[in-house]
Amino acid sequence: MAVAKTKPKSRVSATDEGNRRADLIRAAGRLFVEKGFDATTIRDIADAVGMRSGSPFYHFKSKQDMLKSVMIEGLQAALTAQQAAIVGVRGAEARFRALVKSHLRIILEDHTEFPVLLYEWRALSDESRAEVIAVKDRYESVWQSVLKELKKAGLLKDDGRVTRLLLFGAFNWTVQWYRPDGEFTIDDIAARAADLFLCPRTEGRH
Amino acid sequence: MAVAKTKPKSRVSATDEGNRRADLIRAAGRLFVEKGFDATTIRDIADAVGMRSGSPFYHFKSKQDMLKSVMIEGLQAALTAQQAAIVGVRGAEARFRALVKSHLRIILEDHTEFPVLLYEWRALSDESRAEVIAVKDRYESVWQSVLKELKKAGLLKDDGRVTRLLLFGAFNWTVQWYRPDGEFTIDDIAARAADLFLCPRTEGRH
DNA sequence: CCTACCGATCGGTAGG
DNA sequence: CCTACCGATCGGTAGG
User: Fold this and answer.
1) What CA–CA distances, in Å, run from B15 to A163, B9, B22, B73, B118?
2) What value does the CA radius of gyration of chain B take, rounded to a whole number of Å?
3) What does the alpha-carbon distance between residue B72 and residue B60 come to, in Å, rounded to a whole number?
4) Interface of B with A in 83-142 (CB under 8 A)
5) CA A59 from chain center: how many Å?
6) Of A44, A45, A70, A170, which residue is 20 to 30 A from B167 by alpha carbon distance?
7) Angle at A135 between CA A132 and CA A139, to 5 degrees
């Protein structure tokens, strides 16, 4: 029997599947942020990408699986942006400012996957949670090392757990109030946030 | 007809109704925080206070009405605590520290109504929202005036809208990570949070 | 990826 | 405040 040695068809369909999956993740992320995980139905998500209600289950085995995938997608985008933001940047303050800017862009720009992580943690099942935490830890460890540098440089009084969580709180809360058509740009807010937390360098360094 | 001039029975029943209503608000608040508004069913709430599933609708006309009532209840408790915390306290820094402590106690202690306001804003209908905002504005205006005093005293670089929202973010985010059995008490966290935001007074004031 | 469907559950109501 | 119930909707599946 003539079996083709190259399989262009399966290759194409794999690509298509990847795209459809990515479409679903993007639509789900946006809807989860807008309406919340529980208030979003599979039918909402299917509609958003032009599918029928049963079809998302061809790509994800459950709604919970979609939630986990959305969060991991958001974290991976954040990790990539984080690396790009600090590569080659020297000095504790500059690295800190770069991290803040990168973080706010990730959570406030059109990527809506990361905010799902912030506001639907409760909806994540224990099994999914472990997977997500592994990626989340990588993202946070970069923050920890930069905060440590900051403290060493005398630009931050304390870099303990409580301080760290207070910082993240200020940043992550922006999702609740930032509006793209508002008075301030994302970079404005990032600069003001960095200013707020940095101890003034002692006057007259010379 | 012999109409009793005093109506002890209706008085008692009014009191009872008030208690049952308060019970429902407390149970709903706890469940909304634990599972989220959408994931909490009327049956969950009824169970929690020992009612049948149809009975909460004797006290509230809809689930949305319960949400609004929970939020307003939380705000009123916060307003009362806020007043008590700053009355007679003089000096910008002392007033600020008192406000922070009071706020963290309200959102982290057993009162669970205020956090509903923070995390279920999205679930609130437009009509309910207007009512809640009116009470919320009273609570925030006290913060604004204290932050203004702080800036005047040189203890805060800026008291604009962005800074204010960053501050609230750091405080409100504690709901996500604070654990009563953790390493730090609420007052520890309040003190550390106040330290984080206050500019160091210029050394050697004399 | 669609069609057709199922069992479960939900907010809410009538009538007492 | 309970009993009994309804219409709507939801996550998910079988079979193609």
Assistant:
1) 46, 10, 10, 17, 30
2) 21
3) 14
4) 119, 121-123
5) 22
6) A70
7) 130
pLDDT digits (tens, 9 = 90+) for B114-173: 999 999 999 999 999 999 999 999 999 999 999 999 999 999 999 999 999 999 999 999
> Using N-to-C axis directions, what is the helix angle for A63-86 and A126-152, rounded to 10°?
20
What pLDDT sits at residue B110? 79
Q: How far is B171 from chain A (nearest CA, A)?
A: 7
Closest alpha carbon within chain A to B186? A162
Say which of A161, A177, A192 has its CB closest to residue B163. Answer: A192
What domains are defined for chain B? 61-197 (1.10.357.10)
What does the pLDDT look like over A69-121, one tens digit per residue?
A: 999 999 999 999 999 999 999 999 999 999 999 999 999 997 789 999 999 99
Which residues, numbered 171 to 200 in chain A, qualify as contacts with chain B under a Cβ-Cβ cut-off of 8 Å?
A: 171-174, 176-177, 183-184, 188-189, 192-193, 195-197, 199-200
Contact A45, A35 (CB under 8 A): no
Structure tokens at B17: 């109704």
First-to-final CA distance of chain A: 84
Q: Tell me which chain B residue has its CA closest to the CA of residue A34.
A: B122
Predicted pLDDT of residue B199: 78
d(C-alpha B93, C-alpha B202), whole Å: 14
* pTM to 2 decimal places: 0.90
Half-sphere exposure of A99 (CA within 13 A, CB side): 23
Chain D bases closer than 7 A to any CB of the protein: 1-5, 9-15
Average predicted confidence (pLDDT) for chain B: 90
- Do you know the residue count of chain B? 206
Separation of alpha carbons B134 and A83, rounded Å: 44
Whole-number Å distance between alpha carbons of A151 and A92: 9
Look at residues A97, A75, A73 and name the one whose alpha carbon lies nearest to residue A86.
A97
Tokens of B113: 């109504």
